[in-house]
Amino acid sequence: MIPLAELIIVAVILLNLAMAASGELAACIRLAAAQGVIAALLPLLAGRGAPSGTIVFCGAVILLKGGIFPWLLTRARVKANVRKEVEPVIGYPASIILCLGAFAASSWLGARLPLPETASVAWIVPASLSTIFTGFLLLTTRTKAITQVLGYLVIENGIYIFGLALFVEQPLMVEMAILLDVFVAVFVMGITIFHISREFDHIDTTELSQLGDWYPNPVKSAAAEAAGAGQRGSYDGGGQSGGKK
Amino acid sequence: MIGLLMLVPLLSGLSAFLIRDDGKRRVLLLTAAAAHLALTVYALAARPGIVPGDWFALDPLGLLFLGVTSVLFFGASVYAVKYLSLEKRDPGEDSEEGFIFNNAPEAVFTGCLLLFLSAMTAVTASRHLGILWAAVEATTLLSAPLIYFHRHKRSLEATWKYLLICSVGIAMALMGNLFLGAAGLRSGADLDLESLLAKALSLDRAWLKAAFLFLFVGYGTKMGLAPFHTWLPDAHSESPAVVSALLSGALLNCAFLGILRVAQVCAAAGLSAFTGEILIFFGILSLMTAAFFILAQKDYKRMLAYSSIEHMGILSLGVGLGGGAVYGALLNAVSHSLTKAGLFFVSGLVLAAYKTKQISEVKGLVRRVPRTAVLWLTGFFLITGTPPSGIFLGKFMILKAAVSGGHYAAAASYLFFLAVVFAGMGRIFLEMTLGEAAVLSEAEKPFKASRQMLIPAACFFAGVIFLGLYMPAWLNDLITGAKDLIGGAV
Questions:
Q1: Residue A198 sits in which domain range?
Q2: C-alpha distance from A161 to closest chain B C-alpha (Å)
Q3: Could you tell me the residue ranges of all domains in chain B?
Q4: Are B160 and A145 a contacting pair at CB < 8 A?
Q5: B167–A119: do the CB atoms touch at under 8 Å?
Q6: Neighbours of A244 (CB within 10 A)
Q7: How far apart, in Å, are the Cα atoms of B63 and each of A40, A52, B258?
């Protein structure tokens, strides 16, 4: 249809691969932001003109995804003082292969869910689904709280690609409400990351594993009580050994 | 009218952040809750009609869930006022591990509590699926600070899991909404419930099925259906009793409403056989998961959380079976909310008296805190469906519909898992209630629950027993109306 829109789709898919391969946290934040901004241009180029409401909305999305989110995440990264690496639980080659596999599967699914001709930019469904999958990949195989938020944002990018290329005519209020929610979600997650880094001295979520059905909470110990009285809030160690200092 | 219902908690919630004086803020909480309840009762009596195209309106289904939410919230606010004043006097020592922690500021807690009510009201009243989605996501974000009221590492872990798992789940529901939009693209239906229902037959069926799957996974995560339930036991066990009660009694219902709305569209499109199978399968799976984890449970608040998963499974099963089972499921939803909220209130009192959530360390409730013990046991009998109670009626109707509809395998496994849950919970409740209580030293004064914290639970339990004996005509009308909406007439 419109070559520029299809160029964007290609860029989005390439950015997915780049994120799967990238080992540096700061780079990952930038890549996700770039993907968000590029995707935000999609409705303007989808070939149905650009009513003023759409322009305002796209502007808000670009500001949010290209400006505010990366700023919030970078701030959380600096404050939490985390190391640079992403520390995945599976290797980068495996991540890339999974990402490519997901793209193949998405293409197959996209062929089975045809969109009405009037609305389609080619490859929109596969691009959207594979972006969502990349988000899940980041969410599940990267251990830091920030990368998990990043995964959530990439999933959101995928949904957005599908949504806005199709439904420019949805009421603006609804889109704004959805956008506001995503904004507050990232904001609240940012605050929680800050609390996690203060409480545990790191933001590695594999250590957030005290709750569960098989490991009963450690018993009350007088030593911990005495130690805890001295240092409100800052509690040493995480995980199951928590209460037994 | 509906505007007021949302605005009252919204405005009072915002002003709660600004009020410095604890006493005044607590009065505000009670007043707002009472005003919300009064408005809800008025809405129940007036039954406002639905103007097509409006984003907010109350149909019987919405009214039913709004009523439950409002009643629960009022009970919770009565309990919360006393709870907060106790927390103020005696903050800080973790009852499990004995370290010292701070509480979140009370203004933030109260404010979020009221905003949470506003968001839930919006969920029950929305007629536009996009707005419904935004409201459900708002409930997640507003309740996260409530779970993190006690600022320590366990509640933080629970909050993080809750935030992330539910946000991602809800993102799936957003995708489902977009698929629903794609399904209606050819026939020109947007995400307004009225237009979807009117054009249901001309929706694209492949997209509609995909939409249902995504919405089911999304809202199912929030509702706590297995296997998407992993956040639920953690969040319910680590948050204060009031919050657990609201999460379990009101919030899970709201998520369920999201599934019911899309089931409504699918039923109108003639896809109820497809949706029914999915609902039945995940219903039974949730029952099984809950039964398994209740048997091996060591923590009594987690046990209550798994019992919520069990009941969500029952709701899903009931709606999946269709016909009379839908009535049973809705009756069960109402009764479960009241009973479970009451039980969580009581669990807070047990925790205050024994300073532990470990089942093995709680003995002799009857001796040490007799009034709490009576409520605790009553709650057990009600929640497991002992007659007379609304839960018994609901469970029985679902069983009857399953057998008469020829779903023998579902009926058999349903009965089996209910029996397992009864046995598992029976052991836990009896062990806690009976037995010798440890002798307290002179220094440790036994915790005595105040009336204000006992009465909400007692009233809820009385209401559920009452529902088992006599069904008021207006409630019957309401549930029947709601049932017909979901396609219970099949």
A1: 3-206
A2: 10
A3: 271-490
A4: yes
A5: no
A6: 12
A7: 38, 38, 14
